[in-house]
Amino acid sequence: MVYIERVRKESLQVFVGRSMFVQGHSQIGEPGMKVLLKIVGGILVCLALVLVVLRITGLNPHDEIPGLWLTGDLVTSPVTDWSFTDNVPTIKLQTQSRFLLPHSVTINCLAYKGQLYVSSIYPAGPPRSWNENVMRDPHVRIKIGDKLYDRALVVVTDPTEIEGVLQIQEKKYQLKVPANETELVFRVVD
């Protein structure tokens, strides 16, 4: 009897040493940990490859679907008159998200007194994510046609300037801002 109990205890100790369960607690054994690390490592490598491919190819927004990086030819010279955008219905705007990834959207643009403006109209409540991004970091990349412009946005607070921009917006887009909507107007600066 003593011999059988000793064999059982020794067998139990060997079994417990290789088991994933010890005294009611779950533990991952060494082989299981290696598999888990390989899976997590594979996922991270795939994610890194996807981000590299997207960085190279860009992921421009399409209509109302946001994108990531904008691609095109970078213009470094200053623009003194943005009135060439009068015939451009929409532009692409890239901001920096709080997750350190770019966030790009398609938006309306307006030229007023030679300056470029963008506006955001949304129902009462939290602002659009690109608005929050601009409030946190005003540096943006603007895509007009195939040209990219690295600029900054500032919120317009002058009521006269806002009214002039809204009049141009109403004319260009036949768009009147409803009373219950919130509108932010931003001016593009170098």
Describe this structure in words.
Mean pLDDT is 83; it is low at 11-22. The chain is built from four helices and ten strands. The strands form two sheets. Strands 3, 4, 5, 6, 7, 8, 9 and 10 form an eight-stranded mixed beta sheet that branches. Strands 1-2 form a two-stranded antiparallel ribbon. 36% of the residues lie in helices and 30% in strands. It is elongated and about 70 Å long.
CATH superfamily of the largest domain: Electron Transport, Fmn-binding Protein, Chain A
**CATH class division of the largest domain:** Mainly Beta
Strand tally is 10
Count of folded domains: 2
Choose one word for the global shape.
elongated
What's the order of the H and E elements?
HEEHEEEEEHEEHE
The CATH topology of the largest domain is given as Pnp Oxidase, Chain A
Cα-based radius of gyration, to the nearest Å: 29 Å
- What average pLDDT do the residues reach? 83
How far is the N terminus from the C terminus?
90 Å
Helix content: 25-40%
How does CATH name the architecture of the largest domain? Roll
Low-pLDDT sequence parts: 11-22
Largest sheet: 8 strands, mixed
Enumerate how many helices there are, as a single number: 4
Structural class label: alpha+beta
